[in-house]
Amino acid sequence: MPDFLIGDLKSSSVIKRHPSNPILSDKDIPYEAALVFNAGVCKYQGKYVVVFRNDYGFPKDENGKNTIGRHRTNIGIAYSDDGINWDVQPNPCFDLRSEEISRAYDPRLTVLDGQVYMCFAVDTAHGVRGGIARTTDFDKWEILTMTAPDNRNMVLFPEKVNGKYCRLERPFPVYSRGHKDRFDTWFSDSPDCCYWGNCQLVLGVEDVPFANDKIGPAAPPIKTKEGWLTTFHAVDIDDNRGKNGWENAWKKRYTAGIMLLDLEEPWKVKAMSKEPLIAPEAEYETDNGFRNDVIFPGGMILEDDGEVKIYYGAADTVECLVTAHVDDLIKLCDKPRFEK
Ligand code: BMA
Questions:
Q1: Is 298 in the pocket of ligand 1 (CB under 6 A)?
Q2: Half-sphere exposure (Cβ direction) of 204: Cα atoms closer than 13 Å
Q3: How many A from CA of 167 to the centre of ligand 1?
Q4: What single string gives the DSSP state of each residue in 139-176?
Q5: Containing H/E element for 272?
Q6: Domain 16-332 belongs to what topology?
Q7: Which terminal CB of the chain, N or C, has fewer other CB atoms within 10 Å?
């Protein structure tokens, strides 16, 4: 049992769930698909582009229904004119598998200097790694870097800061954090997107009042006058939770938080909200999913009129969208990092 329980959580009143939610699910995919979620989204050459995680090939029960068990993962791609209705391409666009690598997943997209960068997690025989690949056509990908294990949830900033590529990441130390999931959000930068250094702690799990387990980056940051505005995911455990979704006993809840990072020194939290931005409430977030009560943002787009679209995986099963005005999101960030 964690030291303390979090209790009920509500989403902020500044976000609106899109009436078309889920905006992408297995039914939209023209190849084998079961769980379509945790997508990265960007605007590139006049189109919205989504790359999404697709988990498929689950064992079936006697009625042909998917059951929990060994399965596979690939990354699919779709284009859109409005960010809501998607033209899903006939084949997946990224699938890393070898003796060493079992899958790549949880892609996040960033457009930087006219090219598209995709951060992704990789399960390997020797631990979880974070990778960054670059493309201009979503077909040929150049893998630029892979972290040492265990690390994932990497997101790249959309501009270099002081001439360096910048990223947020979530290494997961176990020995030194009491053999528990006490995981935090880190920053590093790089001259070439290959060699990374200047590692700095950004946000500790103890800084987030709605987490009692672990936190990590969510969607790549967007630039505002006030700072880099960015979401993060926060996890709380309650051992009283039991059967939940397909899982026999899923005791975690994933919410999304929001913070503003300094424009020049992006490892510094200028201000943050001490309340969740999105907490699981809608039926597609709380019921009938693979793992219910999971909100996992992977894409954030700032439109010219100030609307922010936040794309998130819901219940590890479908992809959803909330919108908010950028000024309202900035206003939510009203507390210093260390205030309880
Ligand atoms: C994390 C990752 C995410 C997933 C989340 C909730 O550890 O595996 O891909 O959405 O758990 O299951």
A1: no
A2: 8
A3: 19
A4: SS-EEEEEPPSSEEEEEE-SS-BTTBEEEEEEE---GG
A5: strand 269-272
A6: Tachylectin-2; Chain A (2.115.10)
A7: C
CB contact at 8 A, 147 and 169: yes
Q: Provide the residue-wise pLDDT of the chain in tens; the chain has 340 residues.
A: 888 999 999 999 999 999 999 999 999 999 999 999 999 999 999 999 999 999 999 999 999 989 999 999 999 999 999 999 999 999 999 999 999 999 999 999 999 999 999 999 999 999 999 999 999 999 999 999 999 999 999 999 999 999 999 999 999 999 999 888 999 999 999 999 999 999 999 999 999 999 999 999 999 999 999 999 999 999 999 999 989 999 999 999 999 999 999 999 999 999 999 999 999 999 999 998 999 999 999 999 999 999 999 999 999 999 999 999 999 999 999 999 998 7
Whole-number Å distance between alpha carbons of 278 and 336: 20
Give residue 272 CA to ligand 1 midpoint distance, Å: 23
Break the chain into its structural domains and give their ranges: 16-332
